[in-house]
Amino acid sequence: VMHGLSLERNPIEILETGRSISDIIDGKIRQLYLVGSEEPFYVVNLDNILERHLQWISLLPRVKPFYAVKCNNTTAVLKMLSALDTGFDCASKAEIELALSLGVKPDDIIYAHTTKPLSHIRYACAHRVNLMTFDNEEELLKISHVHPQAKLVIRIAVDDSKSMVRLSPKFGARLPTVRQLLGRAIELNLEVVGVSFHVGSGCTRSSAFRQAIEDARRVFDVASVLGFQMRLLDIGGGFSKIGDFQEKFKEFSEVINGSLDEFFPPVSGLEVIAEPGRYYVESAFTLAVNVIAKRVVVEDRANKCTDGAESCPERVMMYYINDGVYGSMSCITFDPLITSLQAVKKSEPRYCSVIWGPTCDSIDKITENYWIPELYVGDWLLVDNMGAYTVSVTTDFNSFEKAHIYTRCFYKNNKKILLFAGVNSSSFVFNMQVILIYSCCVLPYRQTFTD
Ligand code: PLP
C-alpha cells in the first residue's frame, strides 16, 4: 500500500508508533502560533481509509467499490484507494482527468452521471473510459454521436425517501419508462451492459437496498426479453459508519448480500459494483479551526441550557471561526451539525453561543443555541468526521484561505501499517461531526490574547 502511495508525489507524514493524530494537531497548532498564523487545517488519517476498506471487503465480498471522487478528491485519498485496488466513480471530465493522472486505468472508472456535457463524453471516449450511466433519451443520442462504443448502464430511480440527501427526484429512469429507453438504445445500436441506482446519501433503511435490487432484477428481465445480455449491477452509494450508522453498515451488508443472492445468485456471473463516497472518507478527516473574533450580545429571550450545567442566560456569545458554510462546512446545510463537547468539565459555566463562519453573509452560521464554556479569540476547535462533501465543496467567497490538508498515516518499524481508530471514535453522535474544544494547547495562547 505504501508503495502505491508514491510518497514523492504525496506529502504524507508517516508516524512512528506511539504518536497520535492528536500529537500531530498539537504540533501543527504550535507551529502556526510560532509563525503568527491561525489558518484552518485538516489532518487526514489514511489508516482510517484502509480500515474502512478492510471492513468493506469482508462484509460485502461480492461488491467491488468504485469510490465516488466527488465526495473528497484529495490526491492522497485517491492514491490510497487506487493502491487498494478500488475503482473510481467520476462525475465530470475533470474528475476523470484527475483519476487518470494518478495512474487509474480507464477500465477502473465509471462515468456515473446521467446528464453529461457532450464535450465531457467526447473526452471520456478519447481516453477509453467506456462505462457510463444514462437515464434519458437525449443522453443516448449524445452518446451515440460521440461515443458509440460506450458500455452503458441504465440508472433507475428508487425509493430514497429515507435518506439524508435524496437523488432520485433529479436522476434515474422510472421503471415504466425502462422498456422504451432500452428500445431506443437498440435503435441507436448502443450496448447497455447493466443497471445502477443510488438509494440517496446517508440512507437510513436497509430495506431501500432490497427494494432497489429487486427493481434492478426487473430491469434485467425486461432487457433480457429485448435481447440484451446485461452483466453489471451498480448499487451506488449511501453508506455511512458513524453515529447511528455504526451498526447499520453491518445490517445493510447483510440485507444487500441476501438480496443479491436472492435476485442475482452468484452463478449468474454478474459483476457487482458500488459507488461509495461518504463511507470511505467521512471519519478520516479532522478539521482544526480558529476562533478569529468574538462579540458578546445581550438578548431578551430567556435561553436555557439543556443538560443541567450552570448557565448564564442573558449573554449570548457570538464566535467567528475561520472556516464555515462557504468553506469546508457547506455540508451542514444538509447534514445538520449535531455536536457533542469534549474536554469540557460538567461544572464549567456555559453560555448560549452562536458559531459563525468568517464571511460577511449571515447564512454562514455553523450552529446556534449552543451551550459551551466561554471561548477566547485564538482558541482552536476541532471538528471530527469532516471527510465527506467538505474539501470538495468549498467556494472562494470572500477569498478566505481554504483549510490546508495534512495527510498522516501510522507506520510500524517493520513497515506494516498500524490501524488507528481515529481521534474521538468513542464519541461519535448521530452521523455528524463532533466539536472538540481543544483545551490541551489552547491555554498558553489564551494567555497571549488576554494579557
Ligand atoms: N454516486 C453518485 C451518482 C452520486 O451522486 C453520489 C453522491 O451524490 C455518490 C455515488 C456517493 O454517494 P455517498 O457519498 O452517499 O456514498
TrEMBL record:
Q: Which SUPFAM superfamilies match?
A: Alanine racemase C-terminal domain-like (SSF50621), PLP-binding barrel (SSF51419)
- Provide this UniProt record's keywords sorted from A to Z: Lyase, Pyridoxal phosphate
Question: Which CDD domains has this protein been placed in?
Answer: PLPDE_III_ODC (cd00622)
Question: Which co-factor is required?
Answer: pyridoxal 5'-phosphate
Query: What's a Pfam family in this record?
Result: Orn_Arg_deC_N
This entry carries the following GO cellular component terms, namely:
cytoplasm
**Which GO molecular-function terms appear in the entry?**
ornithine decarboxylase activity
PTM N6-(pyridoxal phosphate)lysine: list the residues: K70
The chain positions of domain Orn/DAP/Arg decarboxylase 2 N-terminal read 47-281
* Highest taxon, organism lineage: Eukaryota
Q: Which GO terms describe its biological process?
A: putrescine biosynthetic process from arginine, via ornithine
Residues at the active site: C360
Q: Which PANTHER family match?
A: ARGININE/DIAMINOPIMELATE/ORNITHINE DECARBOXYLASE, ORNITHINE DECARBOXYLASE 1-RELATED
Function of this protein? Catalyzes the first and rate-limiting step of polyamine biosynthesis that converts ornithine into putrescine, which is the precursor for the polyamines, spermidine and spermine. Polyamines are essential for cell proliferation and are implicated in cellular processes, ranging from DNA replication to apoptosis.
| Similarity field | Belongs to the Orn/Lys/Arg decarboxylase class-II family.
The protein's name in its UniProt record:
Ornithine decarboxylase-like
Q: Which organism is it from?
A: Haplochromis burtoni (Burton's mouthbrooder)
Source species taxonomy: Eukaryota, Metazoa, Chordata, Craniata, Vertebrata
